[in-house]
Design brief:
Elements lengths: L5 H12 L3 H12 L13 H16 L2 E7 L6 E7 H8 L6 E6 L2 E6 L3 H8 L4 H9 E6 L2 E2 L7 H14 L6 E5 L6 E5 L2 H27 L3 H6 L2 H13 L1
Antiparallel strand pairs: 1-2, 3-4, 4-5, 5-6, 7-8
Bound molecules: zinc ion (ZN).
Protein name: Phage baseplate protein
Organism: Streptomyces lanatus
């Protein structure tokens, strides 16, 4: 992955300010995967996107992610570290974007849902049926074509299992034992919103740095953003010493 420059990242943040969370997630994914066409990104399997975002997080802010969570039972504040690199490696599925279920005369091909599919399905009156209809590639029983709406529940369940096995990162669930009461708290980790929060804090700090350096040295914003973080830090320390 290419490490994006400060000016480019700041532009991504600025564009994201006006966006809803889904738009921000897409902007982050674009930053993570500049090699992929923008129209293809929303149809990549959800787990692949999560792996991409964890890899971006590692590239921008390092491996160690601090997560805070309140115990659901006693309310104890729990703080722990996660390894972004490990998620980036483990969440990517075995590859391919279509799963195939063959059982009891059934032969079903199903595309792994992307963010675009989940968003569209969520807007429908029956999200499960809508997702099934959107992502079904082909379905046949004993050679005869069957429509998505006519798939029996056990076959639907087999498809869901196959999707989960092929795209394990689609749902990142943490299971944390409370050090106070011992109860386990389950929580979903939304890497897109986690990373956005970090990017937002980073951008606001950077703008303050630009302000301080511009005031002290009379440099322009592009000049200051072109400095390496190390040099920027060094000049800021010199300003503070005066
Ligand atoms: Zn507890």
């Amino acid at each position: 992955m290419a490490i994006t420059g400060a000016a480019e990242l700041l532009a991504t943040w600025e564009a994201g300010l006006a966006e809803a969370p889904t738009g921000r997630a897409l902007l982050l994914h674009r930053t993570a995967r500049p090699d992929v066409d923008a129209t293809t990104l929303p149809v990549l399997p959800v787990g692949e996107r999560e792996a991409d975002l964890f890899a971006l997080r590692r590239a921008l802010f390092g491996e160690r992610m601090q997560v805070r969570l309140a115990c659901l039972v006693c309310g104890e504040d729990m703080e722990f570290d996660l390894d972004a690199g490990e998620f980036a490696r483990s969440l990517g599925g075995p590859g391919g974007s279509v799963v195939r279920v063959q059982q009891d005369g059934w032969d079903v091909e199903f595309r792994l849902p992307g963010v675009a599919d989940l968003t569209a399905a969520a807007r429908s009156a029956d999200p499960r049926a809508a997702l099934l209809a959107r992502c079904l590639v082909s379905a046949a029983r004993d050679g005869a074509v069957v429509a998505a709406a006519e798939l029996p529940v056990p076959v639907q369940r087999r498809i869901a299992e196959a999707v989960e096995a092929a795209d394990p990162g689609a749902d990142v669930t943490l299971n944390i034992a409370c050090p106070e009461c011992g109860a386990a708290t389950r929580a979903e980790l939304d890497i897109a919103s986690y990373l956005w929060t970090e990017l937002d804090a980073w951008a606001r700090d950077l703008l303050l740095d630009v302000h301080l350096l511009a005031t002290s040295y009379g440099w322009s914003e592009p000049e200051i953003l072109a400095l390496s973080p190390l040099r920027r830090r060094y000049y800021l320390e010199l300003c503070a010493d005066v």
